[in-house]
Design a protein that fits this description.
Two copies of one chain form a homodimer. Chain A is an alpha/beta fold and about 220 residues long. Helix content of chain A is about 45%, strand content about 15%. The first copy, chain A, has nine helices and nine strands. In chain A, the strands form two sheets. Chain A has a seven-stranded mixed sheet, with helices on both faces. The first copy, chain A, has a two-stranded antiparallel sheet with strand order 1-2. In chain A, strand 5 and strand 6 form a beta hairpin. Chain A is globular, with a radius of gyration of 20 Å. At the A-B interface, helix 1, helix 5, helix 6, strand 8 and strand 9 of A face helix 1, helix 5, helix 6, strand 8 and strand 9 of B. Chain A binds a DNA duplex (24 and 24 nucleotides) through helix 3.
DNA sequence: TAGATTGTTAATCGATTAACAATC
DNA sequence: TAGATTGTTAATCGATTAACAATC
């Protein structure tokens, strides 16, 4: 029964991966980037864990979901593990990203250094303010939202960032999906509906402050 | 032994509340705000849950951590429940907030509507660019970072938002803590260390995109 | 070899769901 | 009363931790 167990090749999704694990994968990647900058060639689950407030067992278990990346007695080689995590997260490639809604936040995100650093390139922005359309912000062209479908298709944009007011978010989501994007990052404080097969992540910055507020009020 | 069980008054922290529960509390609050805007006076755990992709049991269980807010046969009265959640989150009051680091993101957050809507008032901003100091952005005064301690104390600022580059984040965190803030919202992509008793929430926007990327690449 | 550290199994812990008596 | 919906208990499910043989 256990004749030809396929050990080395973990093909995409045999077991479904908990969201928390994927999130920590990003944390590991970020920490590895720091470690490399500090001149480390290898690291260990203990180091990685203690820097992030996790147990060493947790780190090893998380990575074990995806394969065997460590070396007993040695630890993990930083560049190697970084490569593996990027491959798993899908950031071993460049993603073309569109931003819709050029209020304060949308405009800021067009120039957000952290996106470029991790392989996300904002290549188009959309708004309906005639004063902005046709201009470039942070070197990125601003288009009228009516041209979204064409521009998104032509530029092979696969991820969309929604920074419009809450009441416009669903409409914009529908537009982006119709234009063929695969995933949406939604900053509007509403739950948007999307077809199955499309991915979605929601970020509500006020919620983060609320979590902080709770913590402050209820700490012992 | 079970004589004088204290049933009605759930005093702060008997059992420690899972983070996930507190996060959903914010989601409930947001959804209740929408429901009220749509003209609903009451709602149910089923409605609330299905709008957020949760089971009704989950909603009731989450709320039960904090008390009995519902009415059997009727459901939850929206304004009542909103009030309770705000009280639990600590957003039944106004918080004075400072932002440190006026790059793209910091500047944008100074005018972020969502913060004000939930009771967070950005009352001071700090940078070290002489071109910005003394000016007002979105009506908020910009100070030199050297004056942080005085300004933060005088304005009774209890929450700090860090939007400086990664390498400056720890220094800024130390400054804010020394000035007497109780909580930090950190947008720099590093783990910052803070004394016990101080609260911290970290947001790395690139991580959110990485989670999206993973989802897109690994969906079935 | 001795020391370090992995990947993985078993034991623990915690969170979620299902079910239902109690209540309006 | 009948229908709706709560708060809560018990059962299930999943994630975390501890421990350790295997390996460099």
């Amino acid at each position: 029964m256990s004749q030809a167990e396929d050990k080395s090749t973990k093909s995409p999704i045999e077991v479904s991966i908990p969201k928390a694990v994927v999130h920590r994968l990003s944390l590991y990647l970020r920490e590895l980037q720091h470690l490399v900058r500090e001149g480390n060639e290898t690291t260990s689950s203990t180091t990685l864990g203690s820097r992030l407030g996790l147990t060493d067992a947790r780190v090893r278990k998380d990575l074990a979901y995806f394969g065997q990346f460590g070396h007993p007695g040695i630890g993990y080689r930083c560049p190697e593990l970084m490569g593996e995590i990027k491959r798993i997260l899908g950031t071993d490639r460049q993603w073309q990203v569109a931003i819709v809604g050029l209020g304060n936040l949308g405009t800021a995100l067009m120039g957000h250094r952290g996106f470029a650093d991790q392989g996300f390139r904002v290549v188009a922005a959309f708004d309906c303010d005639p004063g902005k359309i046709g201009s470039k912000i942070h070197g990125i062209p601003v288009y009228h939202i009516d041209t979204l479908e064409t521009v998104v298709r032509d530029a092979r944009i696969k991820l969309g960032i929604i920074t419009v007011p809450a009441k416009a978010a669903q409409t914009v989501a529908d537009l982006l999906v119709a234009a063929g994007v695969d995933g949406l990052l939604n900053f509007a404080p509403v739950t948007i509906s999307i077809p199955t097969g499309i991915s979605k992540v929601g970020v509500d910055l006020a919620i983060e402050l609320e979590q902080l507020s709770f913590d402050v009020v209820n700490r012992s």
